[in-house]
């Protein structure tokens, strides 16, 4: 394979090196399977194939009489809308079920049934309890934790018509009113998802706009579940603080037992971290120099944020970590684990270990992870990796020597702590004042997955570099954070290389006051994909401080390689929150002009946010910059007008 063809696959040099290894060994990867799928079905790509009932599938040709509707009479706009919102239902199910598991574990820990888990961050517990209306004065920590967990679990299935508690406690009044007016505020997570699936059942709702609004309700249920997952994970394991680590395949150590944690849920991976510290001597007894944990996808992000565990790679290149020949065990929990990893494990000595009753891959070793015996289960898993170390084939070990320094751990609390070094009374004002003064232009959240339809990591990097040189402050989560970590953009190196003068001076001022010897990064890693909730709470805090709505804030979102159902759910609540949201791949909605128009135009009229579909990363960056600059200009004009007439910016906008 030529260098040019490899570079079209990925811009990650470590991944490129391993793709050459794969080609020599004739091992098929996701890139090969994507190529083999071409050309992909145009009916599916544009959303005009309906498989909701078994009269079908119905493939719609809008221009051809007789084939312009499904057998039941469903029009193309109904079919496209139903297909779209079912992605949201899937994504909301994944994120919220993650939150449910965390809530159950907190409950059982508080009741003494999960002895290896405990309340680690008491301050966060007290803040969350106060926010959701739980009394804390004079009460034991575990009693408060129990009530917080029960309150969280009630958000999944409560039967009243009041809004879900977690989301309602975070939103500003303007968005609460907007969601009430448009009837998309969920009353229970499970109900919103079940109702959406009912709504899209054959012969139920045929109104595409009504279907889309049902999807937006489910997407807000997704956000509620994400908030629960983030808050309760912080309570159990600690709220992340700045941490120094490394990223890319070079973090794999040939002299140590390498264990990759993969998936999304920290209940398992956190125990693996604790257990690995206790089993160092057992690892040394078999000739290793110790145990080296590395992360993949969002489980990797969870333990990077709290424990400084290095990131090996992200979703798109997960198979390549195994091909180094030095991963002794890959431990999976849930979500985004490619079934193909087992085939790669078969070519090496790597043991694939599944741990969840709902996430298994044929041929893997399954060890059911039980919260009542969590630490012992984690030790059992690590001992399998220790045993596998004995079976390594040294001739197959090929570890690319690429890795970059990473400064991560920027929870919302950590961000505000950083800002408080300049203004302890109003930390968020440090960010908003920099926008109003013109030092920086605004904020962009760069989030989401990898997608084989793009060049792996390329769009993430190009968009960020364009925004950086134009003085846009950036935060990141998920596999996007993995791309930036591997490329050195989560380090001071990124600031010096790419930041414009305004952004550089802003970050350097923060750095000077921060007291962090490692310095500050170009882009701020806020966590896993459920931790997009931290980003939502950042923009809410900014809007409240400026006394404007989120829809008026110079804040945009971008998912350059959106792929999963979860990404569709997240993007949808970004839009309903009032955020212009770029997606770098085309979702299957082009088959209906009406649905496409709702996503890109009508949403702006109703919510202030809307989707921007653009595959070219440089053009995408310019569009995002234009949106930020327009909103920043309006903000400055209205603030000056408000000062002149002694009114609030919100009143000026309304006037």
Write the layout of secondary structure elements.
Blueprint: H1 3-9, H2 13-25, H3 30-36, H4 42-45, E1 49-50, E2 58-59, H5 76-110, H6 122-131, H7 141-157, H8 165-170, H9 173-181, H10 189-199, H11 208-237, E3 243-247, E4 257-263, H12 266-278, H13 280-285, E5 291-296, H14 297-307, E6 311-313, H15 318-322, E7 327-332, H16 341-346, E8 351-354, E9 365-366, H17 374-389, E10 404-408, H18 412-420, H19 429-437, E11 442-446, H20 458-469, E12 472-476, H21 478-487, H22 492-498, H23 501-514, E13 523-525, H24 532-546, E14 555-559, H25 565-577, E15 580-583, H26 593-607, E16 610-613, H27 617-645, H28 649-654
Parallel strand pairs: 4-5, 4-7, 5-6, 7-8, 8-9, 11-12, 11-14, 12-13, 14-15, 15-16
Antiparallel strand pairs: 1-2, 3-10
Helix pairs in contact: 5-7, 5-10, 5-11, 5-25, 6-7, 6-11, 7-11, 10-11, 11-25, 12-14, 12-17, 20-27
Strand order of the largest sheet: 6-5-4-7-8-9
Radius of gyration: 24 Å
Distance between the termini: 62 Å
How would you sum up the major sheet? Answer: 6 strands, parallel
Mean pLDDT score: 96
Descriptive report:
The chain has 655 residues and is an alpha/beta fold. A 6-stranded parallel beta sheet has the order 6-5-4-7-8-9. A 6-stranded parallel beta sheet has the order 13-12-11-14-15-16, sandwiched between helices. A two-stranded antiparallel ribbon has the order 1-2. Helix 25 (565-577) links the parallel strand 14 (555-559) and strand 15 (580-583). Helix 6 (122-131) packs across helix 7 (141-157), helix 10 (189-199) runs antiparallel to helix 11 and helix 12 (266-278) crosses helix 17. The protein starts with a helix and ends with a helix.
């Amino acid at each position: 394979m030529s260098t040019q063809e490899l570079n079209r696959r990925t811009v990650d040099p470590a991944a490129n090196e391993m793709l050459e290894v794969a080609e020599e060994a004739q091992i098929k990867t996701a890139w090969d399977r994507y190529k083999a799928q071409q050309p992909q079905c145009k009916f599916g790509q544009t959303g005009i194939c309906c498989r909701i009932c078994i009269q079908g599938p119905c493939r719609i040709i809008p221009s051809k009489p007789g084939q312009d509707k499904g057998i039941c009479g469903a029009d193309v706009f109904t079919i496209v809308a139903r297909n779209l919102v079912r992605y949201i239902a899937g994504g909301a199910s994944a994120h919220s079920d993650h939150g449910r598991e965390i809530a159950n574990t907190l409950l059982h820990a508080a009741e003494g049934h999960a002895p290896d888990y405990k309340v680690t961050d008491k301050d966060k517990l007290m803040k969350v309890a106060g926010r959701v209306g739980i009394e804390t004065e004079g009460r034991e920590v575990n009693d408060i934790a129990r009530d917080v967990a029960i309150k969280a679990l009630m958000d999944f299935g409560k039967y009243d018509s009041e809004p879900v508690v977690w989301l309602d406690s975070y939103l500003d009044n303007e968005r609460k009113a907007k969601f009430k007016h448009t009837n998309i505020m969920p009353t229970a997570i499970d109900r919103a998802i079940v109702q959406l699936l009912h709504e899209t059942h054959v012969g139920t709702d045929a109104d595409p706009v009504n279907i889309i609004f049902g999807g937006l309700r489910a997407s807000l249920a997704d956000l509620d579940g994400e908030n629960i997952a983030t808050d309760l994970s912080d309570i159990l394991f600690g709220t992340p603080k700045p941490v120094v680590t490394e990223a890319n395949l070079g973090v794999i150590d040939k002299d140590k037992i390498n264990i990759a944690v993969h998936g999304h849920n920290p209940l398992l991976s956190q125990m693996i971290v604790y257990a690995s510290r206790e089993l160092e001597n057992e690892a040394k007894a078999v000739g290793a120099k110790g145990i080296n944990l590395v992360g993949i996808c969002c489980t990797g992000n969870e333990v990077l944020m709290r424990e400084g565990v290095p990131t090996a790679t992200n979703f798109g290149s997960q198979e390549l970590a195994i091909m180094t020949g030095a991963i002794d065990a890959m431990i999976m929990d849930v979500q985004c684990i490619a079934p193909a990893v087992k085939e790669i494990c078969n070519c090496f000595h790597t043991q694939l270990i599944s741990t969840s009753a709902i996430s298994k891959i044929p041929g893997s070793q399954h060890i059911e992870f039980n919260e009542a015996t969590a630490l012992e289960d984690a030790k059992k898993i690590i001992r399998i990796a220790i045993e596998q170390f004995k079976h390594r084939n040294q001739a197959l070990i090929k570890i690319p020597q690429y890795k970059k320094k990473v400064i991560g751990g920027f929870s919302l609390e950590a961000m505000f702590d950083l800002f408080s070094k300049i203004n302890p009374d109003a930390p968020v004002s440090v960010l908003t004042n920099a926008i109003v003064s013109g030092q920086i232009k605004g904020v962009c959240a760069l989030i989401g997955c990898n997608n084989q339809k793009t060049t792996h990591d390329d769009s993430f990097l190009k968009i960020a570099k364009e925004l950086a040189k134009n003085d846009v402050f950036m935060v990141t989560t998920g596999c996007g954070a993995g791309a930036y970590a591997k490329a050195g953009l989560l380090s001071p190196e990124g600031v010096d290389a790419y930041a414009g003068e305004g952004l550089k001076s802003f970050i350097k001022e923060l750095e000077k006051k921060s007291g962090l010897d490692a310095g500050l990064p170009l882009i701020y890693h806020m966590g896993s994909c459920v931790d997009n909730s931290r980003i939502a709470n950042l923009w809410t805090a900014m809007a409240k401080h400026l006394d404007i709505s989120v829809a008026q804030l110079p804040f945009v979102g971008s998912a350059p390689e959106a792929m999963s159902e979860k990404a569709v759910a997240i993007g949808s609540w970004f839009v309903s929150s009032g955020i212009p949201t770029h997606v770098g791949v085309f979702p299957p909605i082009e088959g209906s002009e009406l649905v496409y128009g709702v996503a890109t135009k009508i949403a702006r009229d109703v919510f202030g946010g809307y989707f921007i579909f653009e595959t070219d990363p440089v053009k995408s960056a310019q569009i995002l910059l234009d949106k930020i600059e327009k909103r920043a200009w309006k903000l400055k004009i209205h603030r000056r007008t408000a000062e002149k007439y002694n009114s609030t910016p919100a009143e000026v906008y309304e006037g």
